[in-house]
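User: Quick sanity check before I run a bigger batch. Here is a single chain. Can you write out its predicted 3D structure?
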Amino acid sequence: MLKPGLSDLTTDIPRRAWKKSSKIYTTPRLLIIDEIGYLPINPVGANLFCQFISRRYERGPMILTSNRSFGAWGEVFGDRIIATAILDRLLQIPRLSAVPVSKAP
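Assistant: Done. Predicted structure follows.
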């Protein structure tokens, strides 16, 4: 099981290995991306994530988790246009499940 972060993808850019490293993440039968929005995403990471989702979205199922609403993804990615492009890909063939979370007393 791989546990990479967006920082792992951005460090590959200087080595011109983006296409090679992105294959690692686009080929699994099921891809789980946990806690979108938990850590800040810089503009390079947001752009790479958008490219990655564009490559992955028709190749296999993905499970994404986030404690941020879709409306806040513009803030998460620092760019509403990139967030809209990512959501456009993710929501083309969706099966969404919203899990209500109760706050601790």
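The first helix runs from residue 6 to 11.

User: Great, the batch can go ahead then.
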